[in-house]
Amino acid sequence: MLKKIGLIGVVVLLMVATAGYAQTKKEKKMAGYVIGNYEVECMGTGMDGTQLIKVWGYGNKPDDAIYQAKKNAVHAVIFKGITGGKPGCMTRPLVTKPGAEVQHADYFNTFFTNGGHYLNFVSQSGDGSVDRIKVDKKQYKVGVIVAVKHAELRRELETAGIIPKLGTGF
């Protein structure tokens, strides 16, 4: 009997200890401004330093998914690079220093807030058509073609001191 009480006590203690470290729904939403498993592909480039990218986003409503897709597109240009699709897009990300996203977390959390500064560097392109897939009862997956202002985004990150200016280090 004492072994059962001891075992139950240990299990309860472990549950209480791990519950203290669990994130609330709001904290989880604030913790990551991008969904880590997004899809992007190059659709072409513009003469003014823009990249046309088809990107997918998830959301409870199609409009939410489009905003998430725009965040994902800017995030991909900054941290992942665009490797799939047609040639022409920069395959190398703007930020190549490991850990830079964590090191400059305050900047990027503000940059990627809903309605944040990232919207200055991305716009919906083409005729405005979107590919919409209903994943389940409450979630949509939306694909949209966006134009990311690569050159302006580079200048912004250089000004913020996140990446070195072109030509430095030679």
Keywords:
2 domains, 5-stranded antiparallel beta sheet, alpha+beta
Description:
The protein has 170 residues and is of the alpha+beta class. The protein is 39% helix and 22% strand. The protein is built from six helices and five strands. The chain has helices spanning 2-21, 25-31, 62-80, 100-103, 105-111, 150-159; strands at 40-45, 50-59, 122-124, 130-136, 139-149. The radius of gyration is 21 Å and the shape is globular.
In brief, what are we looking at here?
By secondary structure, this protein is α+β, with helices and mostly antiparallel strands. It contains 6 helices and 5 strands; from the N terminus they run H-H-E-E-H-H-H-E-E-E-H.
- Find the count of extended strands (DSSP E, 2+ residues): 5
Query: What is the average of the pLDDT values?
Result: 80
Structural class: alpha+beta
* Parts with pLDDT < 50 across at least 5 consecutive residues: 16-32
Q: Cα-atom Rg, whole angstroms?
A: 21 Å
- Total count of domains: 2
Task: Tell me roughly what share of residues is in helical segments.
Answer: 25-40%
Strand content: 15-25%
Query: How large is the count of helical segments?
Result: 6
Largest sheet: number of strands, sense, barrel closure: 5 strands, antiparallel
Instruction: Label the overall shape.
Output: globular
* SSE series: HHEEHHHEEEH
Distance between the termini: 74 Å
